[in-house]
Amino acid sequence: MVVVETNIIAILGAAIASFVVGMIWYSPFLFGKEWMKLSGYKDQKDMQKGAMKSMGISFIAAIVTAFVLDHILQTYETTTIDMAVQGAFWVWLGFTTTVQLTHVLFQKQHFKLYLINTSHQLASLIVMAIVLIIL
Questions:
Q1: d(CA 25, CA 105)
Q2: Distance (Å, whole) CA 85 – CA 108
């Protein structure tokens, strides 16, 4: 039986790294402008309404994601970055893409928005997995 040990520093580091990925991903230099348009925001001010609360809740969600991903990686005795990246990919493919696709279909969202958001989640999970393995 695998004993799972919680490394709070690694989990917090992974959550912070996930936020950095999000800041870059949704910046105007990458997908931010298109994401805002597809999400129905009129401008930057419109998007920033309530953003602090959303970011706080998102950070808590990132901590939970890092905690669960850490447990999965430890349970499967993941010891290398390559294994961690593969684990993150399978978690993304099996859970993120499928759940988000259901939302897109029933909420009639743009498929391009789905691609922006789910590819962000893949990048985020990969970075989290790498941080968790390194720390």
A1: 23
A2: 31
Q: Where are the alpha helices (DSSP H) in the chain?
A: 8-25, 32-39, 44-48, 51-75, 81-91, 97-107, 111-134
Q: To 10 degrees, what angle do helices 51-75 and 111-134 make? A: 60
Annotated domain spans of the chain: 8-134
Judge contact between 26 and 35, C-beta under 8 A.
yes
What's the pTM value of the predicted model, to 2 decimals? 0.93
Round to whole Å and give the CA distance between 79 and 83: 7
65-77 pLDDT, tens digit per residue, is 999 999 999 999 9
